[in-house]
Amino acid sequence: MDRMYPRVENLTSIDRLEEVLNTADSHAIIAWMVRYGEKLNEWRGSGDGDAKLGILPPQKYNRRYLEGQTIPSYPLWVLQNTKWLPLVDGNKQYPSMCTLAKGVSKEVSALVGYPSLNLEHPLLKSLKIDKTAIKNALTIAGVVTDLDELSWDSFYELLLELPQKDPEGKLARSAYRALVGRTDSDNPFGEKFSKFMREGKMFGRFGEKTGYFPINQLYYFENPTLPESMLKLFPSLDLDRRRGALKVKKLFGVEPFNLSTANIRIIEFEEHPCAQEFQKEVEGLKPYIYALRIEEDSDRSELRSLQQLQFKLCKSVKCSIRIGDEEKEISLQSGESIIVDSVVYLIAEPLEYDKPFLRDEIIADALGDVITNILQVDIGGDVARLATCSKKKIGVLLDRITGGSGEVRLSKAFELLQLPQVSEEEPTEAITIPPPTPSPVQPTSTLLPINEISQCEPDDIVRPSSVGPVVVSGGDQVQIVQSREIKRRIKVNPKPKSEALIMKPLVNPDRAENLALEFEKAQGRWAEKVSHFQGSEAYGCDILSFKNKEDLESFKSKPNMKLVERFIEVKGSVNSVGAFTLKGNELKCARENCNRYFVYRVYEGEKTGVFELVETPDPLGVETDAIKVQYEIHPFRTKCSRHWDVKEIDESEVKSPNSPVGDSKKL
Question: 422, 284 in Cβ contact below 8 A?
């Protein structure tokens, strides 16, 4: 039976090579490799030319030998797969698991070995072995100059060892990012590959839990439009999106998350007041988007997808997702979107309402991600560039993106989308928010006849945002206003169609904040407006004020809340006296920074440019009489609320002559 086994004949070996590699100084091994470099290079390129692999088949007397293929060099294999090469951390590693690649992140370098040799070692100096010779020797030993050159066995050995080397997963994401960047076109193979596909684990997240999960339990979320809250519902691989779902599947065996297998249902949503204007902006951009793809879309499938696509700009969205028998609910956060039946529900709030929504870079980027996902073509960056471009220059930009064919493509896109072509010179209207409804009539207000009101300009009601330099005087304690108990009074609701409207100027929040900035400047402090930041991680105030310019610049380069001297919340008012309300982030910030939190109540009288600014430090620490607790109740978040449909009907339709509603009792 022994003769059934393959046998290698004339194999070249080096006596006690394994023992030498395990005990000798690494510099001596390098010196030996340099001296015998010609032979080692021959083995590396041509294998062991004298060795023969033969086998004696059953019932045969003559051995058959492998032809047309050389046997790899055994000494070279031992050199590459013995832990003799010293690393930066003091340990020794297989040369085949090491790299000389430059630009690899610090996290990956902790996993992939970097050789550590002393170029000034006496032995190397005496033999005049320089850096180039050492690099050539290391390359012969199997050290790669680029991560792409890692053998598949080394690649999967690294993945198999990662849970032991990095149990907390601090290096996992960087390692996966580097490894998935391989440019190999061939499929992985080998013993270590098969083992990893059977037993491999990768770092991931499931809800609040993090750790290493079997690869057959993880999903890879490639789609950049999927909400973060959805990721928490399933065990997800800790790897950036847009790395290529097919490549992740091929290299790591992790299945991509597919929305087509999920049933998504919108439970409720609150539409943004400017939703219709936003949809109009998107419709106006569609021809430019399709112009990017018109030559490649031979079957017009992308055209149909764009035509059907609708956007709903929302303030809140709640939806459910069902996979199999399990159904879970999620609420979208700011900047997130979800697509249901060709309708994109997007939660976003622009930083400036005096510009089109799509000029906001964050909203434009979200639109680009959605288009990339819908068309399955990576054009998100170009879509975002077009969305934020001015109407005058968008044609020029399209021409640059398409290599000079923009005008022809655009004309054809308008034709296929069946839209009238609009001149690029036509200005884009800015989105505006309707002004608040005027307050009920008060005896002290100045009233104008309705025929005179129609002649008033909007600037007479809403003052401009800009505020020039100011001079500050006063700083005395305010005159205390005592609260007065009203036991009973009669309130008459104002008629909806009043014959007179109040012409009292409305509050312009930007003007109030700009006044506060000028006030800080006059006080010798350096302030920065932050009211445009929104969400749970916003600052909780409108202005950050610093002691000096150096602190402000330092904060801009590296935010440090200890540098902030004042957290300032600005409350504009149309009345000279009155209370203000703190809630949400404002209340949280006031609690956390009590001694540095200030509220500036700004009132501008009938004379433009003359303000009253009341400064209240630590508003939560003031006297009890100055604080009034309020409760905000959301009837749509409690099961106690009941919904009724009430419809007004004509009096003639009332069957009973007696009305169920009696006359009000006189008080």
Answer: yes
Contact of 332 with 228, CB cutoff 8 Å: no
Q: What is the pLDDT of residue 447?
A: 35
Last residue of a domain, one of 150, 175, 205: 150
Q: Which two tokens mark 210?
A: 């993090």
pLDDT at residue 634, rounded to an integer = 65
Residues of the chain by 3-state class (helix, strand, coil), percent to 5 = 35, 20, 45
Is 625 part of any domain?
A: yes
Q: Examine residue 67 and state whether it is found in any structural domain, yes or no.
A: yes
pLDDT tens for 614-624 read 899 988 888 77
Name the domain boundary from 416, 436, 470: 416
Identify whether residues 411 and 517 lie together within a single domain: no
Let me know whether 538 and 639 are in one domain. yes
Position 37 scores a pLDDT of 86
For every residue of 287-317, which 3-state class applies, written as one string?
Answer: HHHHHCCCCCCCCCHHHHHHHHCEEEEEEEE
Both structure tokens of 332:
């979208």
Query: How far apart are the two ends of the chain, measured CA to CA in Å?
Result: 116
410 and 504 assigned to the same domain: no
Domain that holds residue 536: 500-643
What the block records as the tokens of 478 is 């305010």
516 shares its domain with 391 = no
CA–CA distance, 518 with 502 (Å, rounded to integer): 29
Query: Is 505 in the same domain as 619?
Result: yes
User: What pLDDT digit, counting tens, does each position of 36-76 carry?
Assistant: 888 888 888 888 888 888 888 877 778 888 877 888 889 99
> pTM for the complete prediction?
0.49
CATH number at residue 619: 3.40.1350.10
Does a structural domain hold residue 458?
A: no
Sorted by sequence, the CB contacts under 8 Å of residue 622 that are 6+ apart come out as 616
Q: What is the 3-state secondary structure (H, E, C) of 20-59?
A: HHHHCCHHHHHHHHHHCHHHHHHHHHHCECCCEEEECCCC
Report the SS3 class of residue 565: strand
In this predicted structure, what is the pLDDT of residue 201?
Answer: 94
Q: Are residues 146 and 7 in the same domain?
A: yes
In this prediction, residue 383 carries a pLDDT of 92
Q: For residue 28, is it within any domain? A: yes
Measured at the CA of 379, the angle between CA 240 and CA 252, to 5 degrees, comes to 30
How far apart, in Å, are the Cα atoms of 450 and each of 446, 453, 496, 503, 606?
13, 5, 14, 11, 21
The pLDDT score that the predictor gives to residue 651 is 63
Residue 636: its pLDDT value, please? 66
**pLDDT of amino acid 496:** 53
Burial of 298 (0-12, 13-18, 19+ CB in 10 A): exposed
User: What does the pLDDT read at residue 471?
Assistant: 79
Burial code of 591-602, b = ≥16 C-beta within 10 A, e = fewer?
eebeebbbbbbb
Residues of the chain with pLDDT under 50: 1-2, 424-460, 497-502, 659, 661-667
Res 246: pLDDT: 85
Q: How many domains does the chain have?
A: 3
